[in-house]
Amino acid sequence: MTATYEVRGQVAVITLNNPPVNGMGLVTRQAVAAGINRAEDDAAIKAVVITGAGAAFSGGADIKEFGSPKALAEPNLLSLISLVEACSKPVVAAIHSVCMGGGLELSLGCHYRIAAAGTKVALPEVKLGLLPGAGGTQRLPRALGVEPALNMIVSGEPVNSELLAQVPGQKLFDRMATGDLMDEALALAAEVADVRPLPRVRDLKARFIEKNANPDAFFQFARNMVGGMSKNFPAPLRCLEAVAASVTMKFDDGIKAERAGFAALMVTPESGALRHAFFAERATTKIADVPSDTPTRTIAKIAVIGAGTMGGGISMNFLNAGLPVVMLETKQEALDRGVATIRKNYEAQLKKGKLKQDKLDARMALLSTTLSYADIGDADLVIEAVFEEIGVKQAVFKQLDEVMRPGAILASNTSTLDLNAIANFTKRPQDVVGMHFFSPANVMKLLEVVRGAATAKDVLATVMVLAKKIRKTAVVSGVCDGFIGNRMIEQYSRQAGFLLDEGCSPAQVDRAAEKFGFAMGPFRMGDLAGNDIGWAIRKRRYQEKPNLRYSKSADLLCELGRFGQKTQAGWYDYQAGKRDAIPSPVVAEMLDKHRAALSITPRQIGDDEIVHRLVYSLVNEAAHLLEEGIAQRASDVDMVYLTGYGFPLWRGGPMCYADQVGLFNVVQAMKRFAKNPLDDAEFWQPAPLLARLVAEGKTFS
Ligand code: 3HC
Ligand code: NAI
Hints:
The chain is of the alpha/beta class. Strands 12-11-10-13-14-15-16-17 form an eight-stranded mixed beta sheet, with helices on both faces. Helix 13 links the parallel strand 10 and strand 11 (325-328). The chain is globular, with a radius of gyration of 29 Å. Residues 305-311, 328-330, 334, 385-388, 392, 395-396, 413-415, 437-439 line the site of 1,4-dihydronicotinamide adenine dinucleotide.
């Protein structure tokens, strides 16, 4: 049973019991309906309490059922809630911990609600590209008030139950529990057992908190605000229209309007992508051969080697989480610079009101520095972020091997070097792991956790848990050049270069990529990161893979000293102190000459071709990564791109996008690209995994 039924005196208690979050799947809905019917039929029962077992009242509809016949099978959530609301005996919702989505909607169908303090209350459907589809948009404005309900529905953000209880005139909670929730819920049930008529939220009028509010003006203002903030996401505006219906329509008509909105959103690619991202994010923590109950090592003190760009940002993550950090450098000036940068970052947050002075002081107090390895030996985790040179890494890891206590985790932030080689500089390769942060490391969500050939399972498990503590999305990658993200981006950059050779301007490529939804096109991104970084990588590649073709335009650019924003000249021109990318006549001339030297007649290239070549290059490389076992699953690749590379969230990541386009179509396009003599025919051969999926009519997911 996924809901239990028990009799306490004259009260029937129905307890949702569908771990982990009491999702309202079909079997749970059936069990609740059966409980209500049983209480109806039992003359000895005077009232009903509905609550949730474990760590949630309910996390809402079972998202895993979406798209399957189970989601619509009766009783669906709407009909279950109607059944509860129509019960002839009072039904009390005893709400605690998490009350979200369909769970909150179920409670709004109950006649009374009592909540424990600290309950996270939300209608988060909008985050899945949906709107609350079981009466939430009609009942919450009636119970809570239009303005706060609209805020909750359009943002999807959880609000603490105590705060909601303070909303003037609210009827969301009849009572806040002050002691044991179940005892107080049973007491409330006994108290109201004979009260008639039964109060129903549907009978209330959707009410504005603001006296004299002008509904038309209010919703028009809200439309402008929400529309401006939710470009590419259809759900927020539909949420708003559904809430407006609670004011302008009768309850049953409002429910019909809500239902139509829910059904329309459910089939949008945006909702598909957001639901994919929801599960993809949670899947990243699962490692096939590392069970979730693998014991972890205690991490209470962290050492960071190198206080440069990355070392400073990495340290901030741990300071923010309340963990002490000691930074080690070779020179005092470098330490002073690193500490000053961290302080400056915190002070910027202070100025913006994002951090309080006492928190700033507490974080800085957790930071210490040293020039001596003797001072870091007792750390539980050490993260190396020194220059990207194998000799420097070797010296550092040999030192660490000498001084670190047995069992300490030794991590490297290398972005291109061989982690197995680094691990073998020590006599304890099992304790070595890659922690590849992205710049700025205190801001970017992504952490690639690089699993070396010898990395111990408990080391991996520890780092994954720690990543959650510092609020990173950790994705496991095997060892290869560039790991998941940068190995893929290299193919994307190569395509961007070929597009220039063939006739595009940098601005045209960037415009197409940004119109598709990338936070930044490849050339603006290159200017921001520094074109010299890619130049150094290509120089290495020319040695390693002399037959691999690159456009030479990026090398020519670097030979002109145009490294990007830092030199005020890159693919674009920049004015001092500004970040606006201005198309550069120097670059246009450079490209003209380059094409002429190659006897290329420039051609017009459409946005579709630009975007498809960029994105499918990611997809094909990722299929190789999956085949090689470097990436565990396609949805991990999507998380890397969503959290580390500015891939548009509403497209769900490159693999989800490819699935939505259809892998057959993706491969057909790749075959066309392979025929272009200026492109790389060999690269466009579909990766074996991709070819197999197409042959079997399957998708990545
Ligand atoms: N349905 C199915 N599974 C769910 C779920 C749901 N609504 N909510 C969470 N889960 C699963 C997760 O997939 C995860 O599974 P896993 O262990 O197999 O990976 C597990 O529960 C734990 O989830 P989290 O790791 O997120 O646990 P947290 O404790 O950090 O957070 C939570 C719990 C706050 C409930 C969070 O999971 C959450 O925000 N869930 C989504 C809630 C939501 O969007 N509800 C609306 C559903 S749509 C709806 O109700 C439609 C209706 O209006 C018709
Ligand atoms: P950086 O040049 O800003 O900082 C490196 C720091 O290490 C300097 O302060 C230097 O004094 C110090 N250092 C050098 N040798 C040392 C030694 N033997 N002992 C102690 N300290 C030493 O470099 P950055 O950008 O912080 O990069 C560090 C590492 O992070 C590199 O491995 C790099 O590949 C990696 N990385 C860099 C990213 C970036 O965007 N900058 C992104 C992800 C990883």
